[in-house]
Amino acid sequence: RERYSRDLRLEVGCLSPTSIAPTDAQAQEVAEATVRKRQQEADWLKRTHDPRDIGGANLVGSPETIAAKVREFASAGVGFIGMGFIGHSVDQILDEMALFAEKVFPAVS
């Protein structure tokens, strides 16, 4: 702090691959298929990602499931979430973003 003559303030955040669909099962299916496709393109993913284990810090599920996880992050002190929507096409990703804006934002605001 003294070296740079300023207070050091850090905000806690996370980066979360995001797959949202009307149901948890549909979102999980898209997430798993996307990871499998990317594993075919990038050999290192085969060693580091199990497509069945896409949960954890990732936002995968229905709008209700994702809203609950966002609230959980916020209660843990996370101040921002960098989301990377995943899907099979640009249109699917745009649909996911619209569903997030329509259902999740109002639920967590």
What does this structure look like?
The protein contains 4 helices and 3 strands, in the order βααβαβα. The chain has 109 residues and is of the alpha/beta class. It has a 3-stranded parallel beta sheet, with helices on both faces. Helix 3 crosses helix 4. The longest helix is centred in the last third of the chain and has 19 residues, at 90-108. The radius of gyration is 16 Å and the shape is globular.
Task: Please describe the structure with a list of short key phrases separated by commas or semicolons.
109 residues; alpha/beta; three-stranded parallel β-sheet; 4 helices; 16% strand
Describe the secondary structure blueprint for this structure.
Blueprint lengths: L12 E8 L3 H18 L1 H6 L10 E3 L1 H13 L4 E6 L4 H19 L1
Parallel strand pairs: 1-2, 1-3
Order of helices and strands: EHHEHEH
Mean pLDDT: 80
Individual helix count: 4
The class by helix and strand makeup works out as alpha/beta
Count of distinct strands:
3
* Biggest beta sheet summary: 3 strands, parallel
How much of the polypeptide forms β-strand, as a percent range?
A: 15-25%
Shape: globular
- Rg to the nearest angstrom? 16 Å
Overview in brief:
This protein is α/β, with parallel strands linked by helices and 109 residues long. The protein has helices at residues 24-41, 43-48, 63-75, 90-108, and strands spanning 13-20, 59-61, 80-85. Helix 3 packs across helix 4.
